[in-house]
Write a structure and sequence with these properties.
CATH class of the largest domain: Alpha Beta
Catalytic activity: (2R)-3-phosphoglycerate + ATP = (2R)-3-phospho-glyceroyl phosphate + ADP
CATH architecture of the largest domain: 3-Layer(aba) Sandwich
CATH superfamily of the largest domain: Phosphoglycerate kinase, N-terminal domain
Pathway: Carbohydrate degradation; glycolysis; pyruvate from D-glyceraldehyde 3-phosphate: step 2/5
Organism: Kyrpidia spormannii
Oligomer: single chain
Bound molecules: adenosine-5'-triphosphate, 3-phosphoglyceric acid
Number of domains: 2
CATH topology of the largest domain: Rossmann fold
Protein name: Phosphoglycerate kinase
Enzyme class: transferase
Radius of gyration: 23 Å
Strand order of the largest sheet: 5-6-4-1-7-8
Strand content: 15-25%
Distance between the termini: 16 Å
Number of strands: 17
Length: about 400
């Protein structure tokens, strides 16, 4: 990686503002998936061991610049404290005198957690005044929030204008694993893409088509591709305005000789509900009116397994069906299991697919489960992530 990291700078005795992505699911005041908190521990522990004073900041949800009790970070502070096995001092303010006082009273190795940065309207507006106020608390800015690196906000990018800015260890790992897979993949290189919409992922499909040998498209987005191929899709979600894009993609794959696999069978339901009537149809048979495709079928699963069996690099992003409902989770579960059996590098690209793999207890069987949803998609598309672009180059730090 060409960006400087915490290993390239002196942290001893420094006040360090660390942007983390603690945007985690919370139910009844408890963190229900602490994956993102655990993923930030290496950076936090490295800084503690190095004798730094840590000011941690994160967003949670989308409270739109206002205090919203549902999105306070107290449950996160409790979980972080348990995981670290040392006190975490959580303040109820994002910026201002309470924060300044708490920061001033810190000793080496102390950990302070600010309130949800999105309670401040200046955060998402990337207001320099807010970034400057935070910069006044610290000597160094560390961005470890890969999951929010596609946002140009005050705490994810703006701060880098006012403090020396380096990557944390999670940020480094995410960027290294994802870029190595894209630039030097071991072949056969396969990708599995799913999720709700073609419009969200068409950029990723286009970029991956330039790189992979095999591509499976499943989930809701496959419906539009199947409709573009002329299959009847009944009441499935089809993006009519993306049919031409889908056709173009199919032509590109054919032109490049990339094996593009679409579902050959589907699990369909007579309504969008876990207790709907359901059955499996072949795509040639079509989806009857009033029915909708909610998962890939067993034969598609078999083809996916075969596609992955001897792959040396696999990237997966997006569920194969409405996996939140148990009757339509089989396709997603099967892909997760097939990924777990792959001998080479396996990367799960964040969001729902990462949540599915974690829920199935298969996260440890993957080479890398990204903590970024939107961020990993934008990275895979080849876009510049503002939170990364803002960091110092390693060359500049090493002189
Ligand atoms: N056949 C389908 N019909 C309708 N919805 C579907 C279908 N298959 C999957 N979905 C839904 O797609 C949603 C996930 O899509 P999304 O594009 O958000 O993927 P993601 O991997 O979570 O993306 P991100 O990484 O951006 O979070 C899930 O809620 C799932 O229920
Ligand atoms: O959950 C995520 O993908 C990140 O935390 C970014 O959240 P956002 O989409 O609300 O910016």
């Amino acid at each position: 990686m060409d960006k400087a990291t915490i290993r390239d700078v002196e942290v001893q005795g420094k006040r360090v503002f660390v942007r983390v992505d603690f945007n985690v699911p919370i139910e009844d005041g408890r963190v229900v998936d602490d994956g993102r908190i655990r993923a930030a521990l290496p950076t936090i522990e490295y800084l503690i061991r190095g004798g730094a004073r840590l000011i941690l900041a994160s967003h949670l949800g989308r409270p739109k610049g206002r205090v919203d009790e549902r999105y306070r970070l107290d449950p996160v502070a409790r979980r972080l404290q348990e995981l670290l096995g040392r006190p975490v001092h959580k303040v109820d303010a994002v910026v201002g005198p309470e924060v300044e006082q708490a920061a001033a009273g810190m000793g080496p190795g102390d950990v302070l957690l600010l309130e949800n940065v999105r309670f401040e309207p200046g955060e998402e507006k990337n207001d320099p005044a807010l970034a400057r106020a935070w910069a006044g608390l610290a000597d160094l800015y560390v961005n470890d929030a890969f999951g929010a690196a596609h946002r140009a906000h005050a705490s994810t990018a703006g701060l880098a204008q006012f403090l020396p800015a380096v990557a944390g260890l999670l940020m480094e790992r995410e960027l290294t694993v994802l870029s190595r897979a894209l630039s030097h993949p071991e072949h056969p290189f396969a990708a599995v893409l799913g999720g709700a919409k073609v419009s969200d992922k068409i950029g990723v499909v286009a970029r991956l088509l330039e790189k992979v040998d095999r591509l499976l498209i499943g989930g809701g987005m496959a419906n539009t591709f199947l409709a573009a191929r002329g299959y009847r899709m009944g009441s499935s979600s089809v993006e009519e305005d993306r049919l031409e894009t889908a056709r173009e993609t199919l032509r590109t794959a054919e032109g490049r000789g990339t094996a593009l696999l679409l579902p050959v069978d589907l699990v369909i339901a007579d309504r969008f509900s876990a207790d709907a009537q359901r059955r499996t149809v072949r795509v040639e048979e079509g989806v009857p009116e009033g029915w909708m495709a909610l998962d890939i079928g067993p034969e598609t699963v078999e083809r996916c397994r075969a596609m992955l069996a001897d792959a040396h690099t696999v990237i997966w992003n997006g569920p194969m069906g409405v996996f939140e409902m148990e009757p339509f989770a089989a396709g997603t579960l099967a892909v997760a299991q097939a990924m777990a059996g792959v001998k080479g590098t396996t990367i799960v690209g964040g969001g729902d697919s990462a949540a599915a793999v974690t829920k199935m207890g298969l996260a440890d069987r993957m080479t890398h489960v990204s903590t970024g949803g939107g961020a990993s998609l934008e990275f895979l598309e080849g876009r510049v992530l503002p939170g990364v672009a803002a960091l110092l180059d390693r060359e500049a730090v090493r002189g």
